[in-house]
Amino acid sequence: MYRMAPSNQELQDMIIADVALSVAFSILLSAGNTAKLSFCGLSSGVFGAFCSNPFLFYLPISFVAVSFSFILHEYMHKRVAQHYGAIAAFKRSDMGIVIALVTSFLGFLMALPGATMIYTDRFTKRQDGITSVAGPLTNFAVFIVFYIGMFVFQQGYMNLLMGTTAFIALWLAFVNMLPIPPLDGSKVLRWNKPAYFIIIITVFALLILLEGLAILPSIAIVFVLSVIMSLFSSRILFF
Fold first, then answer.
1. Looking at residue 35, what is its pLDDT?
2. This prediction's pTM
3. Of 24, 61, 72, 171, which is the most exposed, with the fewest CB atoms less than 10 Å away?
4. What tens digit of pLDDT does each residue of 127-140 get?
5. What string of DSSP letters covers 121-186?
6. pLDDT at 226
7. Catalytic residue numbers?
8. Is 238 left (phi over 0), alpha (psi -120 to 50) or beta?
9. Which residues contact 203 (CB under 8 A, 6 or more apart)?
10. Residue 63, C-beta contacts closer than 8 angstroms, at least 6 positions apart
């Protein structure tokens, strides 16, 4: 059985996962985007190099998006689990980090750099469901905050940061609510079917509203890959 890491090891795991996933998202977002944005203008020097390099341009955006969408998601799982008396800690997956980095070069991203490990033999369905739904609901809250931020910063780099973080938070909420073990959605569905369908339908509708039907192929791909990964993820991600 996995021996619970001390707090300093857990913090190290979270930092490594955060940085690695930020790099993966930056690679994905910068693919095929070599043009400077209009607000870069004719900038030179450090800022000019920053604007002309898509990877560097998107790296801070990716870091903010991952820190608020993934790390905060996992942290809320931990806090709620501890509230119910469970032992919980984040553990990174080196294999998951490799998968995230490799897939980012292929035009999509399987974000599996780690997970909150929860140990208890006293969880009820309700406690398990509430602990699981805490992550996607956190993503939804992040989406709302950053979506509003888009209207505060209506142009420039901050607008792009707000919009990208809002989308990634909403997307991770949807993916995690898929009813596929061990994703959060499978546990929420087992606990409370009405709550599950309200959340998944709301998030799905918002994705369609924001991105249109063009996002449906991505949803289909992620669903298929999630099914495949669910068959052996625990064996290859944590060993």
1. 45
2. 0.86
3. 72
4. 999 999 999 999 99
5. S---HHHHHHHHHHHHHHHHHHHHHHHHHHHHS-SHHHHHHHHHHHHHHHHHHHHHTSS-TTSHHH
6. 81
7. 74
8. beta
9. 136, 140, 170, 173, 174, 177
10. 18, 19, 22
Which of 135, 40, 14 lies closest to 78 in space, CA to CA? 135
Tokens 């888009």 belong to residue: 150
Cα separation values, 48 from 35, 39, 60, 191, 202, Å: 12, 11, 15, 52, 41
Residue 133: CB atoms within 10 A of its CB come to 25
CA angle 137/212/40 to nearest 5° reads 85
DSSP 84: T
- Provide the 3-class DSSP secondary structure of residue 207: helix
Amino acid at 74: E
Tokens, residue 54? 């898509």
- Distance between CA atoms of residues 130 and 19, nearest Å: 28
DSSP category for residue 35: S
In the predicted structure, residue 211 carries a pLDDT above the cut 90: no
Beta-carbon contacts of residue 24 (< 8 Å; ≥ 6 apart): 62, 100, 101, 103, 104, 109, 111
